[in-house]
Amino acid sequence: MSLNDTPSSERVHIGFFGRRNAGKSSVVNAVTGQELSVVSDVKGTTTDPVMKSMELLPMGPVVIIDTPGFDDEGALGELRVKKTKQILNRADCAVLVVDATQGKTPADQELVELFQQKNIPYLIAYNKSDLAAAPALGDREIAVSAQTKEGIEELKERIARLVKTGEDSRRLVGDLLTPGDLVVLVTPIDSAAPKGRLILPQQQTIRDVLDADCTAIVVKETGLKDTLQKLGTKPRMVITDSQAFAPVSKDTPRDIPLTSFSILMARYKGFLEDAVRGVAAIDRLEDGDKVLIAEGCTHHRQCEDIGTVKIPKWLSEYTGKNLVLEHSSGRDFPEDLSPYKLVIHCGGCMLNQREITYRQKTAGDNGVPFTNYGITIAHLKGILKRSVELFPDLYALLP
Hints:
This protein has helices at about 25-30, 75-90, 105-115, 150-160, 200-210, 225-230, 245-250, 260-270, 270-280, 305-320, 355-365, 375-380, 385, 390-395; strands at about 10-20, 50-55, 60-65, 95-100, 120-125, 140-145, 180-185, 215-220, 235-240, 260, 290-295, 325-330, 340-345, 370. By secondary structure, the protein is of the alpha/beta class. Helix 10 (about 305-320) runs parallel beside helix 12 (about 375-380).
């Protein structure tokens, strides 16, 4: 991904739902103007969610999601329905495609109830309106034909009105800076670093620093001490990859604020306060307690992977307890968190705001503390207070 691309996590996610053969994929193709999904007269052609990042006017950058039929049958059908329900956790808005020749069914009504339960703005599109007249339409309903393209432009315009877009006031770090400030970013380059590029939070932080009319200097952890000596001026702050917290804290003078990309990302995603409160649960863990370590993306595990190797090792060293550690990645986040005493989540850079909020709320509903990698590592390394000094309200929460 280039620095000019809009990350998937920053795009509006639009989910298309409905029964098999209602014409979801045909409507998706008509809305996008692309052959995004395979279509046929055979029920269940869409077997897995199909996702496409694109520009959809008048909304702008979006992710279109075509889901499997919600009335699918058998063991595989149940799995497809489960995947469809998972899509609801990250859909910013939904379009229910109903076959106008058959009308709304109990499966369609179940989807409407799920939209309402999850507070997802939605529209109901009666497809195949060229073959049968749609019923009297309500405020949330529209008649369309994927075949003749009738109503498709109006559908696009109404989808655009479902979700508030425009200037996002959230900032990673820019609101903490004054034009002309100097910021030092520490980015370890090890076996887990993606070859030829920086990870997304690092890219986004660089861009936000530049947008604030400030200067970003990027160094490896081995070059931080020498760089700080050469600067001749004190930087506004040092931001580090969490796994390098310990050596970076040692090499950063105490009068220079220090935090991490993961902590800034948790703040950006809206769960930093919960993460600071939740990390205290580490000190209450006992032998046999279950801890879930969750990542929002899937990637090739390296020998020194932070989620499956480093954090478990540091947890064991810090607590001295025989913990049961379980892992989830990508979209496979458990719906039932009651068996766990703590959830340690990644920064969530690859997840949109809605899915992060869903995961956070799921933990809260189960009474399970929820924290993230950056806060956890800072706590385990004894530098949590220092890492949140930039945020006085959160600093006051700590003993």
